[in-house]
Amino acid sequence: MSMKKRTAVVVGALAAPVLALTLPATTASAHGWVTSPASRQDQCASGTVSCGQVKYEPQSVEGPKGLRSCSGGNAAFAELDDDSKPWVATPVGSTYTFNWHHTARHATSSWQYFVGDRLIAQFDGKGAQPPADVSQTVDFGGLTGRQKVLAVWNVSDTGNAFYSCIDVNIGGTGGGGGGQQPGGCTAAAWDPTRVYNGGDTASYNGHNWRAKWWVSGDKPGTTGEWGVWEDLGVCPS
């Protein structure tokens, strides 16, 4: 190989990492799901309900805009559409504050909430990048009893949306972010907006929890054995 060719190979090898670093990132990096009330994929991730692949990636339930599907039309997550699974329904009042957690914050067109084909709430994203956590108070508009709410996060610059189904019992104890959890839990439901001090208790996903020190926003069950939340065990039935 000539000296000129060898020089070109070396320069190309050195330039490749630089090119890789400067190439634009893809736009398919947005992810998110509803964490409160506990959505179906959130219950899968926490082990409340036995699920397959979605338990490892609750944030990835993505599909074309306009669907009315808990799975977003994704065959790998089809069990989210199975109403016969033992999904825990959160008791709520006539309104409740829903919390989306975005692991990748993509420019947003809107968030929508449906019961069946009925649009019960919509929030404008204004094409902006949302914060990691977004709270929205939804009015159920006179609906009562057990209902399946489909929450949809429409990103603004792709044809896709993220889907999250939440089972609620409208008219049970509870309201905007508080109330009692099902299954005999004695502590009030965990509220992502509340400040908890050491010794305060909360219930989440069928367990009672106690804060070891000051905390706000950290979801029980996600901080690990040495984290802020102490698991007091499964709520009695």
Automatic annotation (TrEMBL):
Family annotation (SMART domains): ChtBD3
Signal sequence bounds: 1-30
Keywords, alphabetical: Hydrolase, Signal
GO CC list: extracellular region
GO BP annotations listed: carbohydrate metabolic process
Segments forming domain Chitin-binding type-3: 187-232
Keyword Membrane listed: no
InterPro entries (UniProt xref): CBM5/12, CBM_sf_5/12, Cellulose/chitin-bd_N, GlcNAc_Chitin_IntDeg, Ig_E-set
Molecular function GO terms recorded: carbohydrate binding; hydrolase activity, hydrolyzing O-glycosyl compounds
Record's protein name: Chitin-binding type-3 domain-containing protein
Originating species: Streptomyces termitum
